[in-house]
Design a protein that fits this description.
Length: about 180
């Protein structure tokens, strides 16, 4: 499969931007934004500092036929905006469920980009899920507001390991029933 496009992953349109599959040309922006400690510390899986080759390996995983997660880039270039504002993904789970995860580049924080992306992806429901889960770090209430504003319901507290923090971090867990 080409690293330039993923033909089996649909485009999802919003009023302000498009969610499109990750492509090789995203490498520079991905390195810059994922390498930002402010972004990495709010995710479970992005290490900080970002090791050499991590961004390339991520793009290769996104293109793999047997991938466990579909990832989209928030791209406003069709309207003269930024080509890479962040990313959002759905990780496959059993029983027709998935987990949504997202991050937005710091230059676009507090602009509603995350809410628009989550809402659009949930409405498109490209995996035809019955249920979508999400979790956010408890020290990131802005991400919790995104989920609540997009119809997710709080279901409890948990914790997860953050690679960038090298520690377990308390989380809030949310659910959105679609079926």
């Amino acid at each position: 499969m080409s690293l330039d496009t993923l033909s089996d992953q649909p485009l999802v349109e919003t009023d302000r931007f498009v969610l499109r599959p990750v492509r090789l040309s995203d490498l520079g922006a991905l390195r810059m934004y994922a390498g930002d400690a402010r972004v990495a510390r709010m995710t479970a899986s992005i290490p900080h500092p970002l090791p050499p080759g991590a961004s390339e390996a991520f793009i290769e995983r996104c293109a793999a036929a047997d991938r466990e997660e579909d990832v989209w880039v928030m791209d406003a270039s069709c309207d003269g905006g930024a080509e890479f504002m962040g990313q959002i993904g759905l990780t496959r789970m059993d029983r027709n469920q998935s987990e949504i995860g997202y991050w937005v580049a710091p230059a676009f924080w507090n602009t509603g980009i995350a809410s628009d992306a989550v809402r659009a992806l949930v409405e498109a429901n490209p995996m035809k899920n019955d249920t979508i889960f999400a979790s956010v770090f408890q020290d990131n209430p802005a991400s919790a507001r995104v989920l609540v504003n997009c119809g997710f319901e709080y279901i409890g507290d948990a914790e997860t390991f953050s690679v960038a923090r090298a520690a377990k971090v308390p989380t809030w867990t949310y659910i959105r029933r679609l079926g």
